[in-house]
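We give the chain.
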Amino acid sequence: MKIILAVIAVLFTAPLFAQTHEIIKHNGGKLEVNYIKTDNNIVYYALPNSMEEHKISRYAIAQLNEKAQNNSKIVSERIIFADNLDYKKVIVLKESETIGLTKSENLKGYHSIAKGETRWSLAQIGEKQLKQNAAKKGCQFIVITSNKKDNLKAIAYTY
């Protein structure tokens, strides 16, 4: 009986001692949250006075501030394009890693095939072309939906 009462007491008092954090997004938004964990480029958190778990991409977050100890942790750097070679800064994400980012537009491209090209080199050329298109339009992230020789498509995301 004592064990049951102790477990119940812990369940009801645990939310009172949860670590309150402030998430500062790259787009300027701020969230008061209880930080849970970071896993596979996804930050898991719960809103205060709630047990429901929420997710956001770590690429959408600039800083994670811990209010109790005044600690600040930089989660990701903001990507800024300065010249044409900055297409290398564009990050290819999975669809599940885009939570919290803004969908910008669909990108299309075309492969120019040289004799003797391997599938791997065609995939690299296609990815490079999609990154260049995204950088020209000011989009920091892409999700490649098709990287075939006659069908080169991606979805661009920004903060």
Q: What stands out?
A: The first helix runs from residue 2 to 13. The chain has a mean pLDDT of 87. DSSP finds two helices and ten strands in the chain. The beta strands are 20-25, 30-39, 42-46, 53-57, 61-66, 71-74, 91-92, 102-109, 141-148, 151-158.
